[in-house]
Specification:
Elements (H helix, E strand, L loop, with lengths): L1 H10 L40 E7 L10 H9 L2 E7 L2 H10 L6 E2 L3 H9 L34 E13 L24 E4 L2 H12 L8 H14 L3 E5 L3 H6 L5 E5 L3 H4 L8 E4 L5 E10 L6 H11 L2 H11 L6 H6 L2 H4 L8 H5 L1 E2 L6 H15 L1
Parallel strand pairs: 1-2, 1-3, 5-6, 9-10
Antiparallel strand pairs: 3-9, 4-7, 4-8, 4-9
Length: 376
């Protein structure tokens, strides 16, 4: 998909629209970036503001090779970007809550956003500084983790499903849905999530529970189901899924649909396919937020606005492979991507999804203790 984007941008690389022009009234210092329909590299560099934004995002989650989003932002605004990455919501939260690092913009997942809101870690956004918010699809607003859309701007979304190797997995067996992960026929070739929220979420969907259940009896039933699966599991993994599935060491694995870019793309395995089980699944949203203690709130909001520019959102969507909540970016995607149900599932599929919300601490502790028992 990166090669597709490179070709598209080489033919016609659009620049920022007037709605993301930065002026002294919206951000102190940067001045005006006059935007033309040319490569941003052809535009005069803005005067340096002396401001550096600290941005914290997932790894491989921004176009830093083709459009070079952060460099473009600095060139056009004079605001420097110190960009760092994290591996999980929990690692990100642990660092920020410890006070060991200061960031301005952070891009957590839904349930973690809810937790950070509850703990006063996020600042309410001034949407006057984010006019490009108008491009965010209404169906990704007012979600349970931020019901009034006061603290976050959706960046990407996706669903959890099952990747499988068509050479080794019988098509008829897909009718089992999530039960495929418990099929003894594929013992030793099944991978499972190495985190409790997703592992329990799958089991909750399979057993007909809410993905946000707090019922101890239901969580105990999920534990028993996961315990029964353990003898069939080759390994509990996260990003290790890529090598194992591509190299055909494993045949079946639950994961996030956006990673089809890696597993089913040019450098992946042509025998790998993806489906969403009939019992329903998790729909997740990663969103851009500003930390409550940020000393550069207006600049941080300008950065979020820049990320919502149609051309920037398109570049990011093509580069990282995850689904975009940005209406204009999706319209500009190639037909084979925007009409691909792997990346953009049907309305019927989406109607049978549930977003994770922040669970009570006692529920989290119980789930984590049961998870440890599963893996013992």
């Amino acid at each position: 998909m990166k090669k597709i984007l490179a070709l598209l941008l080489a033919i016609s690389l659009m620049m920022l629209c007037a709605s993301c022009t930065l002026t002294p009234t919206s951000v102190d210092g940067p001045g005006t970036a006059d935007v033309e329909d040319d490569d941003w590299r052809d535009q005069p560099a803005a005067e340096k503001t002396g401001v550096t934004l600290n941005v914290y995002n997932w790894g491989e989650y921004i176009d830093d090779e083709v459009y070079e989003v952060n460099e473009a932002f600095t060139h056009l605004t004079g605001i420097e970007v110190n960009y760092k990455t994290f591996d999980s919501n929990e690692d990100m939260y642990a660092l920020l809550s410890s006070g060991a690092a200061d960031y301005d913009v952070v891009i957590p997942s839904d349930y973690m956003i809810g937790k950070m809101i509850d703990e006063g870690m996020l600042a309410p956004l001034d949407f006057n500084n984010i006019p490009n918010y108008k491009y965010i699809d209404e169906q990704y607003k007012n979600m349970a983790y931020d019901p009034e859309n006061a603290y976050s701007v959706p960046y990407t979304w996706g669903v959890v499903g099952i990747f499988y190797n068509t050479q080794y997995v019988d098509e008829a067996d897909l009718e089992q849905g999530w039960e495929l992960l418990w099929d003894e026929k594929y013992s030793g070739k099944i991978l499972m999530f190495n985190n409790p929220r997703d592992a329990f979420g799958i089991t909750e969907a399979l057993l007909g529970y809410s993905l946000n259940t707090t019922d101890e009896g239901e969580l105990q039933a999920c534990y028993e189901k996961l315990k029964a699966q353990k003898p069939l599991v080759q390994g509990y993994v996260m990003d290790q899924i890529y090598d194992r599935m591509i190299n055909e060491d494993a045949y079946i694995a639950p994961y996030y649909n956006g990673d089809a870019t890696i597993m089913m793309g040019e450098e992946g395995n042509e025998n790998i396919d993806f489906f969403v089980p009939k019992q329903g699944t998790n729909i997740f949203v990663d969103a851009m937020c500003v930390l409550a203690n940020s000393p550069h709130k207006a600049e941080a909001e300008a950065y979020i606005n820049f990320m919502c520019d149609p051309d920037v959102a398109l570049a990011n969507a093509e580069y990282i492979g995850y689904s975009s909540p940005h209406t204009e970016a999706r319209a500009l995607l190639s037909e084979d991507i925007k009409n691909n149900p792997v990346y953009y599932p049907s309305e019927e599929t989406l109607a049978n999804t549930e977003v994770y919300i922040t669970l009570p601490e006692e529920t989290n502790r119980l789930m984590e203790s049961l998870w440890l028992k599963v893996k013992q």
